[in-house]
Amino acid sequence: MKSHFSALAALSLLAATAASAAPPPLSLERLADDALENDRVAWDFVEGITTEVGPRQAGTEAEARGRDWAVKWLKANGFAGVKVEPYKMQTWVRGEERAEIVGTFAQPMKITALGNSASTGAAGLTAEVAYFPTYADLVAAPAGSLAGKIAFISHDMRPTQDGSGYGFAGPARWTGASLAASKGAVATVIRSIGTENHRTPHTGGTTFAEGVTPTPAGALSNPDADNLERMFARGKPIRMKLTLTPSAVGETDSGNVVAEITGRDPKLPPVLIACHLDSWDLGTGAIDDASGCGIIAAAAKQIARGDRPLRTIRLLFAGAEETGLWGSRAYAAAHRGEAIHAGIESDFGADRIWRLDSNFTQSAPALYQRLAKAVARFGVAPSQEVATGGADLNLARESKSAILDLQQDGTRYFDLHHTPDDTLDKVDPVQLRQNVGVWTQVVGILANEADAITPGA
Question: Residue 239 in contact with residue 129, Cβ under 8 Å?
Fold first, then answer.
């Protein structure tokens, strides 16, 4: 009996010694620094989904495969509460795409259909082209002046670090076709909303106002738009044959993928971190937005290596962002009334974060200053700009929650946005890791903040 108790005592002593020898959890700062130098999780996600799934157009079988892949990956990486929250949506798919100048200066051009474009029919349509150097010129065109013509809308988008050129040039795509159709145009072509000079047209959604019958709409590559402008400079009428045969397939299934790192007090409002899982179908959606999903997941997993956070960190991999924020709206509707501590989204590529914006810089200055100081070592500057949040943060906006924007360098983003060039080789692993480091630091601070944050710019 004595030897039995002696053995038990020895085992207890060994267990106590082992426990005391276990290293303490890494500090948040150490975790963020480690992510900067060593993270492989974000790259693993982006490389995996772009290789094994590829393009993930909203509402299609490919998007469904992307959801299944993401669920499996999240579970394999230790996330809790992984599930799909389904919803229905209206789905559009592209068909044949051709544009050619006929008659004077005859030659083919590179074009892609815009989302929600109507079809020309298989035979295509041929019409004279009316040139508008800017969207404002189209606005000024008299009612009925485009009857029977194809409208061509150009612009002068330039690269900017903050992506502000998109707001300047975007209306040509967002509402240009509707405006042209309201003035009689039978179709619309635009200069691609992009900043590169490759012969790779940029797709993206267009919308038609209530009462305006949708017409065929496409985007020319920037070199082809340049060429078309040179043709007009020669002073002769230009005719184009346009063949676009997309189709609206009606209601289909989509869904949001959600997961979490459960906090010590799950009753507290969570930190909501978001990205979107769908992509356009021309490239593989590496920049827009597999990188965003990889970044937020890697940061959450990195935080989980340390002390368990006070608040739950909830991940939202939104579906169907590209064709109308279907996932963001569905998530907000399904969770209406739920409080959110703070919301952040990564959806501007994978280049480095350079600025920290919030909607509480003035109302919670001590917290903002703590965040700004914590990320200064990553080359992130403070800001007085008011954060408005990514497209998939409808719930955070509707609940008037704290919102942050971790502004990424957008200088080359619109070279790749919505093009066939949105592929894995465009992701810089070093800058990707900088994103994970900054996100780890910021989300870790927010998830351990006991007090509610009052927005107020």
Answer: yes
Tell me the mean pLDDT in the region 223-240. Answer: 98
CB 296 within 8 A of CB 446: no
Region of 61 (left: φ > 0; alpha: ψ -120 to 50; beta: rest) is alpha
Question: Residues 225-252: what's their mean pLDDT?
Answer: 98
Whole-angstrom Cα distance, residue 17 to residue 11? 10
- The domain made up of 96-247 is a member of CATH 3.50.30.30: yes
- Where in the chain are the domains? 28-88+251-447, 96-247
pTM score: 0.94
CATH topology of domain 28-88+251-447: Aminopeptidase (3.40.630)
Give the model's pLDDT for residue 21: 59
What is the pLDDT averaged over residues 392-396?
A: 98
Instruction: Read off the pLDDT of residues 1-46 as tens digits, 9 standing for 90 and up.
Output: 444 444 444 445 444 444 455 678 889 999 999 999 999 999 999 9
Q: Following CA atoms 321, 309, 70, 276 in sequence, which dihedral angle do they give, to the nearest 10 degrees?
A: 10
Give the tokens for residue 380. 């992130």
Structure tokens at 402: 């704290």
**Phi/psi-derived region of residue 291, left when phi > 0, alpha when psi is between -120 and 50, beta in every other case:** alpha
Backbone dihedral angles phi then psi of residue 89, each to the nearest 5 degrees: -150, 165
Q: Do residues 273 and 299 lie in contact, with contact meaning Cβ atoms separated by under 8 Å? A: yes
Interval 180-204: pLDDT, tens: 999 999 999 999 999 999 999 999 9
